[in-house]
Design brief:
Blueprint (H helix, E strand, L loop, with lengths): L14 H5 L2 H4 E4 L2 E4 L7 H7 L25 H8 L18 H14 L3 E5 L2 H12 L5 E5 L4 H15 L2 E5 L4 H7 L5 E7 L11 H10 L3 E5 L16 E5 L13 E5 L1 H6 L7 H5 L5 H11 L2 H21 L4 E2 L9 H7 L9 E5 L3 H14 L4 E2 L9 E4 L10 H7 L5 E5 L6 H17 L7
Parallel strand pairs: 4-5, 4-6, 6-7, 7-8, 12-13
Antiparallel strand pairs: 1-2, 3-9, 8-9, 10-11, 11-14, 13-14
Helix pairs in contact: 3-5, 5-12, 6-7, 13-17, 15-17
GO cellular component, one term: cytoplasm
Family: Belongs to the trans-sulfuration enzymes family.
Keywords: Pyridoxal phosphate
């Protein structure tokens, strides 16, 4: 898309105005970031304020625009679109690799969810992450990133980008703000990248403070919020860009692979530039049929996240009382419990993931086998955000891209079991199954002392 074109991603119906000016939310006072209470804003209300698309014949659900290419009333209109005079802001479309009406509507909902001006939806979460980082960092650029990241993101930063793009990364403990500050190389570092709640260690990032440090150095803050949609709103806490693997909680059914980039309109538009835009030129296009399905699921995301969080909190507390080593940011003994509580949106809990540290991979596998095959509590599978409980031993699966030393630095124990808590059945029904597995562990002397 030509530089002259500025397609509108802005939300209709006043949702952007309700989001408020970030200057009102983040105020620098005495070198510190003062964050207005996130309880004053509700992502579900923001989504409800976004423009509702009706179907072609008046249906309450929008129609699916499945066309790869679009026709024009005359050749002059086509010419004006290619020069950037006309665009999707006025319902003019050329080709679905650039903009598609159905996908664009999902983008509006994602922008409403995160409280950003714009959003663009991609074919996967990794497509969103890689496109953003390559847009912000040219050859020779530098990134400072958390040492505790999803394995795919870690491999992208540590191996692919240096080799393919001459972009290097310094990994740091994101909880050590001084280390983050010292790792930033003025004039070279372009991005500070981290996960709002880390995969799989469930470490909570101090988004306002990290954003302050980065902004003082002219560095853009990119936050992966896959683990905490609805729970946290990183852009409202100071982040410049928010990325998602929509595949997880937002989809909720483990049947769709998708991602999203949420941020300022100028940045999303730059990613769609015909000559320099990573989204335009790399083509991580979302299928409009999937975008339609995801639009329908966005409306009940808030309800689902509340139940995921409520179950996770209940199970984490009970498992801890039974003597297991439990990691969950909703527990008061979690190192960042108060931090998360201070940043979280009201009533959405502390997230739907918890971890149980079984110390060794052998014990972790035994635990998961008992949970799935004896107690019938969930499935041994990667991914998360499904309505059923999913569990995996992170060190040997989704974090296997990290070396043993990198896993140690990230705080990943060989026996760390990541559990994405589902919500089917009743809480007590599921708890009885979980408790049965713990009793089995005790009988065989496999239960670690807390």
């Amino acid at each position: 898309m030509a530089d002259t074109q500025r397609p509108s991603f802005l939300l209709a119906g006043g949702a952007v105005e309700e989001r408020g000016d970030l200057k009102e939310i983040i105020q620098k006072k005495s070198g510190k970031v003062a964050v207005a209470s996130p309880w004053e804003w509700d992502p579900a209300a923001s989504i409800a304020s976004a423009r509702h698309e009706f179907g072609e014949h008046g249906g309450v659900n929008m129609s699916i625009e499945a066309s790869a290419t679009f026709s024009f009333m005359d050749s002059e209109t086509m010419r004006r679109m290619f020069t950037g005079e006309l665009g999707p802001d006025r319902d003019f479309f050329i080709y679905s690799r650039s903009f598609n009406p159905t996908v664009l509507n999902l983008g509006r909902l994602m922008a409403a969810l995160e409280g950003t001006e714009a959003a663009y939806c991609t074919a996967s979460g990794m497509a969103a992450i890689s496109s953003v980082l390559m847009q912000l960092c040219g050859s020779g650029g530098h990134i400072v990133a958390s040492s505790a990241l999803y394995g795919g993101s870690h491999a992208l930063l540590s191996h692919f980008l240096p080799k393919a793009c001459n972009i290097t990364t310094t990994m740091v403990d994101i909880g050590d703000v001084s280390a983050v500050k010292n790792a930033i190389v003025e004039g070279k570092t372009k991005v500070l990248y981290f996960e709002a709640i880390s995969n799989p260690t469930l470490t909570v990032a101090n988004i306002p403070e990290l954003s302050r440090v980065a902004n003082e150095k002219g560095v853009k803050v990119v936050v992966d919020n896959t683990f905490a949609p609805m729970v946290l709103s990183p852009a409202r806490l100071g982040a410049d860009v928010v990325v998602h693997s929509i595949t997880k909680f937002i989809s909720g059914a483990a049947d769709i692979i998708a991602g999203a980039v949420c941020g300022p309109a100028w940045f999303v538009n730059s990613m769609m530039d015909m000559h320099h835009g990573t989204l335009m030129l790399l083509g991580p296009t979302m299928n409009p049929k999937l975008a339609f399905e995801l639009c329908e699921r966005m409306q009940h995301l808030g309800l689902r996240m509340k139940e995921h969080g409520a179950r996770a909190l209940a199970f984490a507390g009970r498992l801890k009382k039974l003597g297991l080593r439990v990691i969950y940011p909703g527990l008061e003994d979690h190192p960042q419990h108060q931090l998360l509580k201070s940043m979280a949106n009201k009533e959405y809990g502390y997230g739907g993931l918890l971890c149980v540290d079984m110390e060794t991979e052998e014990k972790a596998n035994r635990f998961m086998n008992i949970l799935q095959n004896d107690a019938h509590f969930g499935f041994i599978a990667v991914s998360l955000g499904y309505y059923e409980t999913l569990m995996s031993c992170s060190g040997s699966t989704t974090s296997s891209e990290l070396s043993s030393e990198e896993q140690r630095l990230a705080g990943i124990s060989p026996g760390l079991v990541r559990i994405s808590v589902g919500y089917v059945g009743t809480l007590e029904q599921r708890w009885s199954q979980l408790e049965k597995a713990v009793c089995h562990l005790k009988e065989h002397g496999l239960l670690l002392k807390n």
